[in-house]
Amino acid sequence: MSDNKEIWVFIEQYHNEVADVSWELLGEAAKLAPAIKAKTAAIILGKNINTFVKETIAYGADKVYTIDNPILGDYQTETYSKAFLKLAKKYKPEIILLGATITGRDLASAVATKLETGLTADCTALEINEETKFLWQTRPAFGGNVMATIICKLKRPEMATVRPRVMEMPTADFKREGEIIREYFTLDEESLLARVLDFIPADNTDAAQIEKAEIIVAAGRGIGSADNFGLLRELADLLGADIGVSRPLVEMGWMPYSHQVGQTGKTVRPKLYLAVGISGAVQHLAGMRNSEVVIAINKDPEAPIFQVADYGIVGDLFVIVPELINAVKALKSQSEG
Amino acid sequence: MNIIVCIKQVPDTTQVRIDPKTNTLIRQGIPTIVNPYDLHALEAAVELKENHGGFITALTMGPPQAKEALKEAISAGCDGGVLLTDRAFAGSDTLATSYILSAAIRRLDADNKVDLIICGQQSIDGDTAQVGPGIAQRLNYSQLTYVSKIREMDIELGNVIVERRLENGTQVVSGRLPALITVVKEINEYRYASLANLIKAAKFEPIIWNQEYLKLDKSRIGLKGSPTTVRRIFAPPRKSSGEIVNYKSENSREIMKSIIDIISKVRQ
Ligand SMILES: Cc1cc2nc3c(=O)[nH]c(=O)nc-3n(C[C@H](O)[C@H](O)[C@H](O)COP(=O)(O)OP(=O)(O)OC[C@H]3O[C@@H](n4cnc5c(N)ncnc54)[C@H](O)[C@@H]3O)c2cc1C
Ligand SMILES: Nc1ncnc2c1ncn2[C@@H]1O[C@H](COP(=O)(O)O)[C@@H](O)[C@H]1O
Fold first, then answer.
1. pTM exceeding the 0.95 threshold for the entire prediction
2. What is the CATH number of the domain that holds A139?
3. pLDDT tens for residues A277-327?
4. pLDDT category, A334, cuts 50, 70, 90?
5. How much is the ipTM here?
6. Cα-based distances in Å from A70 to A185, A187, B193
7. pLDDT at site A3
């Protein structure tokens, strides 16, 4: 199949709501494709999936392979991996990309094992090497202290999961055209090893979606106590920003886990990340390094956060933040008045 | 019930660094620990045993020093420990590792039918979360990852019901035994060893198996059996240095203006 190579992207969806990382990966696949003269293809597995087939083409898929079957209504490793394997064995893609989400990682591991091929988890950069045409898959290792580039020389497909919000979101072009290939698949339901009994949606009242925020005001242990949080909230409200925190604040119970940024929290990619009283440990940087602009306020000039800051202010946050609040307020009344 | 817990000895990654001159990993003097996620796997096994009775075997693949990890497993309440060690295993990626571990589990299963394998969510050095699923696929066990709670364990019926913590909620799944589960930290609080278990651990000697004993296919283990290879390692990139200013009351207006400018640009 060397003349018609394909780069596949698994379209992750839950009850027909697509995870953004799928679109990000279609954008990335389109960037990689020319170097190996490949087409991009979206893989959609699910139940009643017609609603977003067109969208996958708009976001960059040249081809769409679908399996629409009631048995694929809820994600389950066994049903999804078997459906995916059926497609992969038939069409032999060159590269398979999935989101490094819980579902993406679960599925990718099962599929890679059955295909006896290599899988690189949690990539933050992908590139086709000009000489060898191997996929260079770069990812953090050892808790973010080290970056490693992994290649898979002999086995195909090359498989990788990629962290959400690391690749750029492409813009949808609904004039694009693509080919839709519908495949079928059956499984004896009686023989299944596992069944989904129920799904309990997360309590969304405070399950922050900071990974989608354009501006994040982030606080670290420097704010001293939970009582001082009001200051940060005021600033965030004025800026229309979401609040992010370093891990100690979650551990002390000042903020829920859904606000944690970092290696064991969320990866964010806002236009502006305003870090207040955060030292910038590698585990924290792992989650916010890709922010477009970073402003840091910290009283310690040696704090590592300054190494990733576009604009850093060395000083006491309890002086600077109130002043900033006043400055933003002044700006607002100006533009309104 | 018969439970196997897969544990990995890992370097304390908070201390791992790249030597900026040679671009190699500085390994010297870095302490090893039991992968923190695996402590929760051990705890989950001990809790199941407390409720259902049975036997827990800790299983690890690693260098001879990984025996220390098994000792910790014994002190946590495991009944036995198996160390898979062989020079030929060195350099195994997740595909080769899951092949070796599943071969050992087949051996254990032949002696005493396995009901459940428990792994940690992921290891802190590799961070891949691939080895657990790899084992499940090779053994054709129910694959239940990111488990935050074991709701019901019915050995008679051969069934387990678990909660899986997903990004947008909790999935409740019923799986047939034998099953492989990987656990998240939230599943339990790791209890430290009792004195009796510490004494047991001090005297403990693991069963040691090598490549030959497991009759492994040499082309599927170690570097040769690993499709992925590390092409290069490097220190995380630093952004080109931005502008850093010292706050003083004299320059505060200027600083505020700079911040406001950045904010205004971002919001356009
Ligand atoms: C396996 C592992 C995973 C981890 N995952 C994460 C993760 O996902 N996210 C995460 O954030 N951390 C994570 N950590 C923890 C991480 O190593 C750091 O401990 C943590 O990020 C530090 O948080 P901090 O910057 O808020 O606190 P500190 O390091 O204590 O820094 C506080 C900063 O505030 C400054 N400060 C104090 N007072 C003032 C003041 N009045 N004005 C201005 N500045 C002030 C200080 O100079 C200091 O730099 C992880 C650790 C491990 C081992
Ligand atoms: N060498 C090993 N020996 C035993 N168990 C392992 C080994 N490597 C990984 N595991 C298990 O697999 C889980 C996931 O590891 P990883 O795929 O490396 O992130 C770990 O939490 C362990 O339970």
1. no
2. 3.40.50.620
3. 999 998 899 889 888 899 999 999 999 999 899 999 999 999 999 999 999
4. confident
5. 0.86
6. 11, 11, 48
7. 63
Centre of ligand 1 from the C-alpha of residue B174, in Å: 40
pLDDT at B239 over 70: no
Using CB distances shorter than 6 Å, the residues near ligand 2 are: B 6-8, 35, 37-38, 41, 59-62, 94, 97, 101, 119-120, 122-123, 126-132
Instruction: Name the CATH topology of B2-220.
Output: Rossmann fold (3.40.50)
What is the A220 CA–ligand 1 centroid distance (Å)? 6
Burial B9-47 (b: 16+ CB within 10 A, else e): bbbebeebebeeeeeebeeeebebbbbbbbbbbbbbbbe
Q: Report the alpha-carbon distance of residue B236 to residue A284 in Å, rounded.
A: 13
Whether B241 shows a pLDDT value over 80: the answer reads: no
Residues A70 and A178 in one domain: yes
Which residue type, as a one-letter code, is found at position A193? L
Reference B35, options B117, B102, B126; nearest CA is: B126
Are residue A225 and residue A329 in the same domain, yes or no? yes
Residue ranges of B 202-231 with Cβ closer than 8 A to chain A: 226-231
The pLDDT value given to residue A62: 98
The Cα of B194 is separated from the nearest Cα of chain A by a number of Å equal to 26
Taking the CB of residue A33, how many other CB atoms lie within 10 A of it? Answer: 20
How many distinct helices (H) and strands (E) make up chain A? 8, 18
